[in-house]
Each structure stands twice: as C-alpha cells, then as structure tokens.
Amino acid sequence: MKTVLLSLGVVGALTMAGAAQAQAQDAAKLAGEKGCLACHAVDKKVVGPAYKDVAAKYKGDKTAEAKLVKKVIAGGSGVWGQVPMPPNNVSEKDATTLVKWVLSQK
Description:
By secondary structure, the chain is mostly helical. The protein has helices at 2-33, 51-58, 64-74, 92-103.
C-alpha cells in the first residue's frame, strides 16, 4: 500500500510540474502575442528591464502582483529609468498571467 501511495505521489508531483511548465509556456507565448517581448526579454535589458531583474526587485513584496498588473494595463515610468512603458491593451486576466510569469523568473 505504501508503494502505491508513493507512486501516486510521484505521479501527482510530475503532473503538477508538467502543468506548471505548460502554464509558463502559455504565459511566454502570451507575452509574444501581446508585444511584451518587443521591449523586454527574460534575461537581458532591451528597452525595458529584463524580467529576471523585475522578479528580483519585487521578490518578497506581497503587493507586487497587484501593482504590476495595474502598471501593465495603464503603463508607467520612472521605476526603471526615463523610458515610459505605454499602456497595454490586455485584459486584467492576461495581465495577471503575465505578471505571475514575470515574477517567477530567476
């Protein structure tokens, strides 16, 4: 019985890992579709900051997700220099998906 439960636990963990990877791929695809990657990259500054730098800056900030969702939708400036980020035509749901993905970068 322990072997069966352990096996189910491993399968469950692998399924969850696979689901997380699929969600990350979907979010990366969404970033491309919404034009985010024209100004950002995961690992290097383009026009805007690298997503890994954004994740590092907001690590541990419990209000980061909400703040960044608003910023993705409305745009903003001043946090990463003088180049403003324009407002983006994304739903709150898509903005939340994108922000969660950005904040997960290492």
